[in-house]
Amino acid sequence: MRKALLLGDRVAPYHPVGGIYEVLKRIYDGVFDITLEENYGELTLDGLEEYDMVISYTDRWGEKGTKQAAAALVTYVADGGSLLVLHNGLVAAGSSHELALLYGARFLWHPSQVLIDYYKTDVDHQISERFEEFRTTEEAYMFDFDDFTRKQVLVEYRYANSRIPAVWCHRYGWGKVVCVVPGHQTESLHAPVRKILYRAGLWFLDRI
Amino acid sequence: MKKKLFLSGDYTYPLYHPLKNVDEEIFAILGDDFEFALNTEHFESLEDYEYGRFDTVLLYNDHWIDKSPTVHQQVQALIHYVACGGGLLVVHNLDAGVDYEMAQMLGGAMKKTLAPQNHRHIDYYPAKAEHPVLEGVEPFSLEDDLFDIHHDRLTDKTVLLNAVIEDGIEVPMAWAVEFGLGRVIYTAPGHDVSAFRDPSYRRFLRNAALWTAGGL
User: Fold this and answer.
1) How far is CA B136 from CA A62, A132, A180, B2, B205, in A?
2) Does B96 score more than 70 pLDDT?
3) What pLDDT, on the 0 to 100 scale, is given for residue A58?
4) Which residues of B49-76 are buried (b: 16+ CB within 10 A; e: fewer)?
5) What is the pLDDT of residue B64?
6) What mean pLDDT comes out for the span B158-186?
7) How close is the nearest chain A Cα to the Cα of B96, in Å?
8) Does A155 have pLDDT greater than 80?
9) What is the pLDDT of residue B45?
10) Are residues A71 and B84, on separate chains, in Cβ contact within 8 Å?
11) pLDDT tens-digit readout, A162-196
12) Between B83, B100, B103, which is nearest A71 by CB?
């Protein structure tokens, strides 16, 4: 069994990790053993190196995040680690430019929850293979995307006549990053999203 | 105690910017504060762990593209080194072909050199920023290259030097980035040895090297 570290907050203003943690345990059952880390401001490279995947679902980065933790995540991935950023984990990139560069996007804002249609892009990738379009009520996250990141956008949604990336992936240094926007609550993790998360884990392990 | 500096540039096969002669000026500018722990044109041969020996790294290499089979390893090593608290000072040569992760950390990549090349008169002004690197730096003028740079909007930069080009447009010529626990400066002036002989730019380079090494 491989080891994964989930960064999140049991007590959180918007996105408590408890329910998501249970869903992630079911998704990765038999593949990853997931440990929850709430004290993520203290992350170090040494501490991260034992994990095969880090999942970021941080909801209090603005309060708990540190330069040291951002440096540890950047270095972990540059050295060959695998990082999955889910929904509110992306918000941390609004206050850390290191994370914005690592994720390939800076979070800007989101309107109230709206009905969103998610669909696969033309990009063929193992992670989004056989992805089925779906519709759900979600937060439409808005980003400033980095011009330099060599990312592949796998899933998109439409909002205000714009096509907005919802799932993207890229290599960073020797490592890999997957960003998944839908995930406001456990109900957001519809079957197609769970499949994306599962396949992202396999992609990290070079099993697909 | 002097800080340790790793200097790299091209002696044998420079494309446009030989380190020969420039190195002597750099030794003179930084010699009081730094020990030149390593001076090599084969910077790509360094392993990750070796960077830990240096307080800062000064790169004047102008043909990273030619080293592409190994440059990816080097980019990863430099990101690791800087994020963990290392210093990086890149002088003049902002490679267009460098890996994107490096361009992000440096805050941009070169698009092209604007004509007329090599001997363009440029007036440089310290930016209106409170920054230790600007201590004692006066406006100065050089005959140098003017680069068209693709800036990374997401990199948090403090602009240190500006130049005023045609139509009164002010463009950044040097900036500082705090990346993870480390410090990075890119500075554009330095096409040839004459730039390194300007007293104000010498002051700027000394401050810049010290700041990246955590010494200011």
Assistant:
1) 36, 62, 48, 21, 12
2) no
3) 98
4) eebeebbbbbbbbbbbeebeeebbbbbb
5) 63
6) 94
7) 12
8) yes
9) 67
10) yes
11) 899 999 999 999 999 999 999 999 988 999 999 99
12) B83
pTM score, two decimals? 0.95
Give yes or no for A75 touching B (CB within 8 A): yes
How is residue A98 written in tokens?
A: 């290191």
**A131: Cβ–Cβ under 8 A, 6 or more apart, which residues?**
A120, A154, A155, A192, A195, A196
Cα gap B35→B32, rounded to integer Å:
8
Report how far Cα B44 is from the mean position of its chain's Cα atoms.
Answer: 17
* Residue-wise pLDDT tens digits, B22-81: 999 999 999 999 999 877 777 666 777 788 889 999 999 876 655 555 567 777 888 999
Query: Residue B48: its chain A contacts at CB < 8 A?
Result: 79
pLDDT in tens, A38-68: 999 999 999 999 999 999 999 999 999 999 9
Task: Kindly report the CATH number that applies to the domain delimited by A2-204.
Answer: 3.40.50.880
Q: B56 to chain A, minimum CA–CA distance in Å?
A: 17
Q: Where are the domains of chain B?
A: 3-212
Query: What architecture does CATH give domain B3-212?
Result: 3-Layer(aba) Sandwich (3.40)
The percentage of chain B sitting over the pLDDT mark of 70, rounded to a whole number, equals 92
Tell me what ipTM this predicted complex has.
Answer: 0.94
What is the DSSP annotation of chain A?
A: -EEEEEE--SS-SS--SHHHHHHHHHHTTTTEEEEEES-GGG--HHHHTT-SEEEE--S-HHHH--HHHHHHHHHHHHTT-EEEEEGGGGGGGGT-HHHHHHHTEEEEE--S-EEEEEEE-S---GGGTT---EEEEE---EEEE-SS---EEEEEEEETTEEEEEEEEEEETTEEEEEE---SSGGG--HHHHHHHHHHHHHHTT--
Of B80, B152, B180, the CB nearest to A148: B152
The domain segmentation of chain A, as residue ranges, is: 2-204
Name the token pair of B123: 């007036």
